Amino acid sequence: MRYLNLLFLLTSSLVFGQSIEGRFVVNAEFVNQTNQQIFETLERSLNEFLNANAWTDEDLPAQERVRCSMILNLTAYSGSRFEGTLQVQVERPVFGTNYYTPLFNFLDKDIVFGYQEYQPLFFNPATYESNLISLISFYVYIALGMEADSFGLRAGTQHFKAAQQVMILAQQNTMKGWNQRDGNRNRFWLIDTLLSNTFREYRQVQYNYHRNGMDLMEQNTLQGKQGVMDALELFHPLYNRRPNALLLQTFFDAKSDEIVDLFTAGPDIELSRTQATLNRIAPFFGPKWKRLK
């Protein structure tokens, strides 16, 4: 796409599945540990786990395959116990281009799990295996749901329900992030709001923004920009009901830079209404919206 210069590059490892391309990075620079081998083994095992599993029955063509990056920033390690944060980023290709549009950018601060070096990692959707396996499989299904929603209206429901099932099974452990009492920005509330009718506009925007906006950009840039603008207007009812909604924050965490790049390059379009909308529904990104001309 000649008018967009934002490109999130993701170098994935070998992919064996047909629905997801994933990359897992373990950053242990903040952990006081002279032997780095266990972190390298963990990273290798998680990349194999992420990419080797056939997470769905779908055989997605390359141009529709979701890309998912997970970066584990470790803050503590002792014995077999790991603590840290997990940054999850999801993107998918834009029709007719080599540009990948970000779908999801989420920081999970409640990461604690046990892992023994060379421990085999197996996923069974019907049982709870470990907190580590639950964490990764939960976000894989979130990624698949986000990608599906961007191609078809509410097409990601089955994947979000699979993530919800992972969450329900994981609630039997004592690790944080799986229960509503653990805070207001965690895995429980993420999947709860994604499946709730109260926040339905989020998924409508995900579809309209991408299919009626981004995917038209190469053929007709002005039409694509208008489609993005129209999609953003759909957020008003959600903002009126829940102005501090987690999903609003999550959407603009992923999209704010792209929106600025989109509307500050290429053919000019009247932006006053869109700028007013963004300042109302996402005031926390106000400095970025000032760049829109």
Question: What does it look like?
Answer:
It is a single chain. With 293 residues, the chain is of the alpha+beta class. It has two domains: 1-154, no CATH class; 196-293. It is 42% helix and 17% strand. It contains ten helices and four strands. The protein has helices at 37-52, 131-151, 157-170, 187-194, 200-211, 221-233, 236-241, 246-263, 272-281, 286-289; strands at 20-27, 66-78, 81-93, 100-114. It has a four-stranded mixed β-sheet with strand order 1-2-3-4. Strand 2 and strand 3 form a beta hairpin. Helix 5 (200-211) runs antiparallel to helix 6 (221-233). It is globular and about 60 Å long. It starts with 19 loop residues before the first strand and ends with a helix. Mean pLDDT is 91; it is low at 1-17.
Task: Give a summary of the structure in a few sentences.
With 293 residues, this protein is α+β, with helices and mostly antiparallel strands. Helix content is 42%, strand content 17%.
Kindly report the average pLDDT value: 91
Beta-strand portion reads 15-25%
Low-confidence parts: 1-17
Structural class determined from secondary elements = alpha+beta
* Strand segment count: 4
Strand order of the largest sheet: 1-2-3-4
Number of helices: 10
Largest sheet: 4 strands, mixed
Question: Gap between N and C termini, in Å?
Answer: 21 Å
Rg on CA atoms, Å: 19 Å
How many domain regions? 2
Order of helices and strands: EHEEEHHHHHHHHH
Q: How helix-rich are the residues, as a percent range?
A: 40-55%
The shape is: globular
